[in-house]
UniProtKB/TrEMBL annotation:
A GO cellular component annotation in the UniProt record: plasma membrane
Enzyme class of the recorded protein, top EC level: transferase
Protein name per Swiss-Prot or TrEMBL: histidine kinase
Compartments where located: Cell membrane
Reactions listed under catalytic activity: ATP + protein L-histidine = ADP + protein N-phospho-L-histidine
Lipid bilayer topology: Multi-pass membrane protein
Domain HAMP: 316-368
GO MF entry, a single one: phosphorelay sensor kinase activity
Organism of provenance: Muricomes intestini
Pfam families for this protein: dCache_1, HAMP, HATPase_c, His_kinase
Length: 589
C-alpha cells in the first residue's frame, strides 16, 4: 500500500495528542492550584489578623474598662466629693478662718480614701486630682514629677465627665483624664489624671502577635502610635490614614516597623476613638505557598512520566489491528470486493473490524439494489409521460369546442371552454411560484365556470390592491379555498350569497382573506376541520388540507392559517405569506 505524502502513524498522533492534552491539563491544574494556594494563604493571613486584632482589641478594651471603672469609683466616692468641695471653698474665699492646714487635711483624706483601690491595677503608676482652685492631690509611688499630656483643663471640663486618653511624658506612659462632677448638681469639682505604663498594653500585643511574627499598632485619632509591639515606634505618627486603609483596594502595605511588604487588617474603632491595626509579613505566607507549589510540581512531573510510559505500551497494542484493517480496506478500494479483515478481539477495534466486514457485504447488496432502483425510476418516468398525454388531449379538445362554439354563435360555450382550458393549462404547467395576477386569472377562470353553473346565485367582490399583483406567491392556493366556500357555504342556501376575496400588503406580509356569507359552522366544527387539516392521514377536507400543508412546509407557523365561522352568518379563511417581489432563483421562468 502506497502511503500518501505527509502520512503520520496513528500511534504518533495518539501519543502527540496525549502529550499535548496532558501538558495543557497539567498546566491548567498547576495554575489553578497556584491561584488557589495563594488565595487560601491570603484568607488564612486575613483570618489570623482578624483574630489577632479582635483578641488585642478585647484585651485593650478590658484594660481601659478597668481604669474607667476605677475613675468612676473615685468620682462618686463620698469622701472625694465632700473634701474636694471643701478645698474649692477654702481657696475660693468661703472659709478663710480654716487656713491652709485644713486644705492639707482634706487632701490627705482624699488620698487615704482611694489609695488602696488604685494599686489593685498593676499598670497604674500614679493618680493626680486637681481642684478648681489648682490644688494637686498626688497618689502613687513613681512619676512624682509632672508628665505632659495632650489635654488642658478647659478641654477636660468640656468633655463633661467623659474619659480622654493620650500619651504622656516621653511616650512611655498613657494617661486618662476625666472631669470630677458633683453628684449633687453635676457641676465640676476638679479633674483627675491617671497615669499607667505603656507596657500595660504592649505586653498584650507581644502575646497575641508572636504566632505569625506579626505586629500590632494602637493608633489614636490624631494618627499617633499609642502602643505597639515595636517599642521604638511608640509616639511616632503612623504613616497611613485609618480611613485610607479601610478604603484601600490593595491588601498589602509597607510595615512601618520592618519595612517589609505585609498584609494588614484594620480593626473596629474603640470607644475612646483609638484603632488597632495588625500586620503580618507577606513573605512568611508566600514561602508556604512556594513550598506547596514545588511539591505539587514534582508530583505532577512524576505522574506525567509514568503515564507517558503506560500510554506508549497501550498505544502499540491498539495500533497493530488497525494496520490489518487498513490493508484490507485498501484492497477493497482497489476492487477486491471479497477482501475481509480477520477479527481477533472483542474491543472497539474488533467491533470496527466487524462493522467493516458488514459494510463490505452491504455495499455489494446495495450495488444490486441501486441498479434495480434505476430501472424502476426509468419505468416510472415513462408512466408519468404517458399520464400527461390525457391532460394535453383534453386541453386540445377544449380548444376545439371553444372554436366550434364561437363559430356557431354560442359564445357562452366558447367562454366556458376557454376558462376550463386555462384551468387545465395551469394544472399542467403547475409552476411553484407565480404572480398574484396570474393566480387571480386562474381564480377568475374558475369563478366564470361557477357563474355559468349557478347564475346570479353567487356574487363575487374583489378587494385586491394593485401594488400586490406583481408579487409572487405559491400557485393554486386560492382556488381550493374558494371552491370550499362555494360547496360548503353558498351552494345549498336559497338566497343569494356573496363571496369576498381580499389581498393586501401589510408591512412585509401579503394578507389573504376569503369570506362568504353562507351557512357557517359551529365552533366545534371549525376545530374538527382544523384537526383534519393537521392530520396527514385524514382523507377529509382534501382541498383545505393541501393548502394548509403547503403553507406549513413553505412558511411554518408564520403563515397564521385561520378559520373563523359563525353558524348562519358565514365563514372566513385567512393566511399570510412573506412579500416576494422577485421570482426565486431556483424557479425556472
Amino acid at each position: 500500500m502506497k502511503r500518501r505524502e505527509g502520512f503520520y502513524s496513528i500511534r504518533y498522533k495518539m501519543l502527540a495528542a496525549y502529550v499535548v492534552l496532558l501538558f495543557v491539563t497539567s498546566v491548567g491544574v498547576f495554575c489553578f492550584f497556584t491561584f488557589r494556594f495563594d488565595k487560601v494563604y491570603k484568607q488564612q493571613a486575613n483570618s489570623h489578623m482578624a483574630d489577632v486584632t479582635g483578641l488585642a482589641a478585647a484585651n485593650v478594651s478590658n484594660m481601659m474598662e478597668q481604669i474607667d471603672q476605677l475613675s468612676v469609683s473615685v468620682i462618686v466616692d463620698r469622701a472625694v466629693q465632700e473634701n474636694l468641695g471643701i478645698i474649692n471653698k477654702n481657696r475660693g474665699g468661703y472659709d478663710k478662718e480654716k487656713g491652709t492646714g485644713s486644705i492639707e487635711t482634706n487632701k490627705a483624706a482624699i488620698s487615704n480614701q482611694i489609695r488602696g483601690s488604685i494599686f489593685n491595677i498593676n499598670g497604674i503608676t500614679s493618680l493626680r486630682i486637681y481642684s478648681l482652685s489648682g490644688e494637686e492631690i498626688f497618689i502613687g509611688t513613681t512619676n512624682r514629677e509632672f508628665l505632659e499630656y495632650s489635654f488642658g483643663s478647659d478641654e477636660i471640663y468640656e468633655a463633661n465627665g467623659g474619659a480622654l486618653w493620650s500619651l504622656a511624658g516621653d511616650a512611655n506612659y498613657v494617661c486618662m483624664c476625666r472631669a470630677i462632677l458633683s453628684t449633687a448638681n453635676m457641676k465640676p469639682l476638679g479633674y483627675m489624671v491617671i497615669i499607667c505604663q505603656n507596657d500595660y498594653f504592649g505586653d498584650e500585643f507581644s502575646t497575641v502577635s508572636s504566632a505569625y511574627s506579626g505586629r500590632v499598632y494602637l493608633v489614636d485619632q490624631e494618627g499617633e502610635t499609642v502602643c505597639s509591639s515595636d517599642q521604638e515606634l511608640i509616639g511616632s505618627i503612623f504613616p497611613y490614614e485609618i480611613q485610607e486603609l479601610r478604603e484601600r483596594k490593595q491588601s498589602t502595605i509597607e510595615d512601618p516597623g520592618t519595612g517589609e511588604k505585609s498584609y494588614y487588617y484594620t480593626g473596629e474603632t474603640l470607644e475612646n476613638g483609638w484603632t488597632l491595626i495588625c500586620t503580618v509579613s507577606a513573605k512568611q505566607f508566600r514561602d508556604g505557598v512556594a513550598a506547596s507549589i514545588l511539591q505539587m510540581g514534582l508530583l505532577l512531573a512524576g505522574a506525567l512520566i509514568l503515564s507517558f510510559i503506560v500510554t506508549t505500551v497501550v498505544v502499540r497494542r491498539l495500533v497493530g489491528p488497525t494496520k490489518k484493517l487498513l490493508l484490507s480496506m485498501s484492497e477493497f478500494g482497489e476492487g477486491k470486493l471479497d477482501s475481509r479483515v480477520e477479527v481477533s478481539g472483542n474491543d472497539e477495534i474488533g467491533q470496527i473490524g466487524c462493522a467493516y466486514n458488514e459494510m463490505a457485504d452491504n455495499i455489494q447488496n446495495l450495488m444490486e439494489k441501486v441498479y434495480s432502483l434505476e430501472l424502476a425510476n426509468k419505468e416510472a418516468e415513462i408512466e408519468f409521460l404517458k399520464m400527461q398525454i390525457n391532460p394535453h388531449f383534453l386541453y386540445n379538445s377544449l380548444d376545439t369546442i371553444s372554436w366550434l362554439g364561437f363559430t356557431g354563435g354560442n359564445e357562452k360555450v366558447s367562454d366556458l371552454a376557454v376558462s376550463l382550458a386555462k384551468l387545465l393549462r395551469a394544472s399542467i404547467q403547475r409552476a411553484d411560484m407565480i404572480t398574484v395576477a396570474e393566480e387571480m386569472e386562474t381564480v377568475k377562470s374558475y369563478l366564470l365556470i361557477q357563474d355559468y353553473r349557478f347564475g346570479d346565485k353567487i356574487g363575487v367582490e374583489y378587494d385586491v390592491a394593485s401594488e400586490v399583483l406583481q408579487y409572487y406567491m405559491p400557485s393554486f392556493l386560492l382556488q381550493p379555498l374558494i371552491e370550499n366556500s362555494i360547496i360548503h357555504g353558498l351552494e345549498n342556501q336559497i338566497e343569494k350569497g356573496i363571496l369576498k376575496i381580499s389581498i393586501k400588503a401589510e408591512n412585509d406580509w401579503l394578507m389573504f382573506v376569503i369570506v362568504d356569507d353562507g351557512r357557517g359552522m359551529e365552533q366545534k366544527q371549525v376545530e374538527m376541520l382544523l384537526r383534519q387539516c393537521k392530520d396527514s392521514q385524514s382523507g377529509n377536507a382534501i382541498g383545505l388540507k393541501n393548502v394548509y400543508r403547503r403553507l406549513q412546509l413553505l412558511y411554518g407557523e408564520e403563515s397564521s392559517f385561520e378559520i373563523k365561522s359563525v353558524q348562519g352568518k358565514g365563514t372566513s379563511i385567512s393566511f399570510r405569506i412573506p412579500v416576494t417581489r422577485w421570482k426565486p432563483v431556483a424557479e425556472k421562468p
